[in-house]
Amino acid sequence: MARDKKPSIIFIDEGDALCSSRSENESESARRIKTEFLVQMQGVGNDNDGVLVLGATNIPWSLDSAIKRRFEKRIYIPLPEAPARSNIFRLSLGSTPHSLTEHDIKELGMRTEGYSGADINIVVRDALMQPVRKVQTATHFRRVRGPSRDNPDVMEDDLLTPCSPGAPGAMEMTWMEVPGNKLLEPIVSMSDMLMALSNTKPSVNENDLKRLEEFTEDFGMEG
Questions:
Q1: With pLDDT > 90 as the criterion, what percentage of the chain qualifies?
Q2: Which of 4, 42, 132, 142 could be disulfide-bonded to 169 (CB atoms 3.0-4.6 Å)?
Q3: Where is the ATPase AAA-type core domain (predicted)?
Q4: Are 76 and 218 in contact (CB under 8 A)?
Q5: pTM of the model as a whole
Q6: Domains with residue ranges and CATH for the chain
Q7: Interatomic CA distance for residues 18 and 122, integer angstroms
């Protein structure tokens, strides 16, 4: 199909699942799939001009040697640096209301050395849950002005938002007593991000990174 629709790109994510080293213990079907893959990528009479095959893996050392030869360029993509991490925070927040400043986002990028893009997404998702937790655990609410749930362009003066017991106008109540159309959840703040960050550790350890760098030195090719 790729040849028929060319120019085209075939992308194989988690390529180690398909292209791991062949062994005597694997099933006949798995062996046939790998053999067919090798033949299609670089077999006699195959015309792959206009077809680009890309693969990604976190454990390149497990790839079959014949597969490694088929992928002519082996490029190591390291963990994101601080500016890239800050940008991932921005993208992950998207249009979600928050009170983070540009300085806050840059600081988060600096604080997340060793975090992958997926790790940062987990941090943001956890932070986005913090306002929900504040609502659920609040013992006091106060009236504030904010956009109507039914029409965001209309401002209302009687919305209820969580607060501390000592806050001006605090009323003792739980979220179950707040009418659904009058609840104003707190927006995501820097403290929410820092709380989420303290609960999320990097998923990539130093040994894995060192092994990836050693593989790159032995087999990698710069694009």
A1: 44
A2: 142
A3: 2-79
A4: no
A5: 0.73
A6: 8-78+210-219 (3.40.50.300), 82-203 (1.10.8.60)
A7: 27
